[in-house]
Specification:
heterodimer, A: 492 residues, two-stranded antiparallel sheet, 2% strand, B: 117 residues, mainly alpha
Chain lengths: 492, 117
């Protein structure tokens, strides 16, 4: 009986737990509740994934109101894949958060911290699971508002200005999405995504629909940190608490990529977005320029966290590049990179979190000789870094490989050059860290020991996943391929 | 004048651009939030305008009235207004914290102390 309500429980569970978390006075209990809820959410998403794995689509009518009138929750191969990523990362990041947050966030604020975390999780899961365009906006704002809070809880006072900057840009982005949805409602009179798609196909092209597409693309682009709309991201990632950076970097932009896919391929038809409107070339150019410029900027960063933040913008570029190819292979590569990037950036930011826990700083100069003092932490960092570059036998290689194949298939050779150049730039900025950690002697008076096991365990869990999904690609490639077929197929 | 017949939408565009301009041009963080509010308010008007039906009455069930305006956009915008209030509240709370940390709410002053905004 409970099985049929799983799509809504996926969201409701964390939504209900959030205020309960607020009532728990002790930080440990709040953490425990958040952790249990995250694990439950992960289990639900696994069950949902198993159900849609066969190609089935689960449709759930909230409150029993049928689809075009009521709010529909709709789970298919695409969002089941996203749900797994978000919930799994939340579990791993929370394992890490207990020790890390205890040090970085003041004691009386920790309960509030986990409340905001659960709300953020609710928002992200809601965006993924809903089949209603306006409902998507509401969940987007839930996740955004709570992430401003989470970022603002960073130790450095610059976390406040970073959070404010993100609030201004994020609100503009969300309002653009609201305008886009409004214009679509104006032409079609419906908010259900499937219904929107069916009615737009009949109504065809008009100035209002074109404007709606433009607003939605720019709005989602802001949330996605698509170059040149990424200006909020480096500061937000750099000054947020370590655990929050892990959670944001591995989930928030991924969910934005999902929104982009859903709107460009399902609500609008691909023949409209990439045929009648020149969005394909537009996105490809932005992605290519983004990959090259932000990777170059990464090289000159002194703060390692900031360096990886810029690298995240470049990685978003790879995903958008895959989308702009508008082929089954391109979408497979984009979705695959979405999954793999969550693993590699998760690992890297977790390892940096360990460093921040022991050293209190993630400046490049501070990590000299850390390869000897914190061997396990730096080894995990190395695994993540190799995956980021795209060395064979790591997850990063698999997605870069598929992306290059997809570009070759379309005959877009300049893009192949961009992808390879991006990887070369990644070698340079990653090498600066590796050289500092392994080839420089540690300062004499530095007495740093290895990070505690509670931090190392989640770090190595994700580092191991990087290697595992670099070798056994059956799940990741299979899911990505199925989701891509669904998106391309619906745009027949 | 058909062009002025759609005056609601002209107001929407005007408010939107004014709000957007304030967000970009003003260095005062509270003024930025006011601009953001103006920007959001313009979208509220856009939604409410589109709910109008020619010759339609207010959507209250009465005898003798057959044509109603569409109430759904109003309901949607109620949600968006709540979101707007929450955003403003959070923004102002952040401004208070920034004032405590930096002693100023002017972008230039903050920039001078920390190379971050």
């Amino acid at each position: 009986m409970i099985r049929e309500h799983l799509p809504v429980l996926q969201v409701v569970l964390s939504l209900v737990a959030a205020p309960l978390c607020l009532l728990l006075t002790r930080a440990v209990w709040a953490w425990l509740l958040a952790f249990i809820v995250s694990v439950a959410a992960l289990l639900i998403s696994i069950v949902l994934l198993r159900e849609v794995y066969t190609g089935e689509v689960i449709s759930y009518a909230i409150g029993g109101w049928a689809a075009p009138w009521g709010i529909e929750y709709r789970v298919d191969a695409v969002n089941a894949f996203i749900l797994i990523i978000v919930t799994a990362i939340s579990v791993v990041a929370l394992m890490f958060a207990k020790t890390s947050v205890a040090q970085e966030v003041a004691g009386d604020k920790q309960g509030l911290f986990y409340t905001a975390w659960l709300l953020c999780l609710t928002g992200l899961l809601g965006i993924a699971v809903t089949g209603d365009a306006f409902n998507l906006f509401v969940f987007l704002e839930i996740s955004s508002l709570s992430s401003y809070v989470l970022i603002g809880l960073g130790q450095d006072r610059r976390a406040l200005t970073a959070s404010f900057q993100y609030l201004v840009m994020g609100t503009i982005g969300a309002t653009f999405i609201l305008i886009g949805i409004g214009l679509l409602y104006m032409v079609t009179g419906t908010l259900n995504m499937m219904d929107l798609a069916a009615r737009l196909a009949v109504l065809g092209d008009s100035r209002t629909v074109q404007t709606a597409l433009a607003f939605l693309t720019v709005g989602i682009g802001l949330k996605l940190a698509l170059f040149p709309l990424h200006l909020w991201l480096p500061n937000a990632y750099t000054y947020a608490p370590s655990a929050v950076t892990v959670f944001m970097a591995a989930t928030a932009t991924k969910v934005a990529v999902y929104m982009l896919l859903r709107f460009l391929f399902q609500v609008f038809d691909a023949s409209f977005t990439f045929g009648a409107m020149p969005l394909g070339g537009f996105l490809a150019v932005l992605a290519a320029v983004g990959i090259l410029s932000t990777s170059t900027v990464s090289i000159f960063q002194d703060n390692v966290k900031r360096m990886l933040a810029y690298s995240s913008v470049a990685q978003v570029g790879y995903m958008v590049l895959g989308i702009s190819l508008v082929s089954s292979a391109g979408l497979t590569a984009a979705l695959l990179h979405l999954f793999n990037h969550a693993l590699m950036k998760g690992t890297l930011f977790l390892a940096l979190g360990c460093v921040a826990y022991r050293l209190g700083s993630v400046r490049l100069g501070a990590i000299a000789g850390l390869g000897q003092r914190m061997p396990w932490t730096m080894a995990a960092f190395l695994v993540g870094a190799l995956s980021l570059i795209g060395i064979p036998l790591t997850a990063g290689f698999v997605s870069k490989w598929y992306l290059i194949l997809a570009a070759v298939e379309r005959g877009w050779w300049p893009l192949v050059v961009v992808i390879v150049a991006g990887s070369l730039l990644a070698i340079i900025y990653v090498w600066r860290v590796v050289e500092m950690a392994y080839l420089r002697p540690p300062p004499e008076k530095l007495s740093v020991t290895e990070a505690p096991l509670s931090l190392l365990l989640p770090t190595w869990l994700l580092a191991g996943a990087n290697v595992y999904f670099g070798i056994d690609t059956q799940f990741s490639v299979g899911m990505a391929r199925q989701a891509a077929a669904l998106l391309i197929g619906s745009s027949g | 004048m058909d062009l002025l017949g759609l005056y609601n939408y002209w107001i929407v565009i005007l408010l939107m651009m004014m709000g957007f301009y304030v967000v970009i041009a003003s260095g005062h963080l509270v003024k930025k939030l006011i601009g953001l509010n103006l920007f959001q308010a313009s979208v509220f008007i856009l939604y409410i305008s589109m709910g109008t039906v020619d010759g339609g009455a207010a959507p209250i069930l009465r005898s003798g009235v057959g044509v109603f305006s569409n109430p759904l956009p109003h309901v949607l915008i109620l949600t968006a207004i709540v979101v707007g209030v929450a955003t403003t509240a959070l923004g102002l709370a952040l401004v208070v914290r920034i004032k405590e940390a930096y002693g100023s709410v002017e972008e230039e002053d903050i920039h001078r102390q920390d190379d971050s905004l």
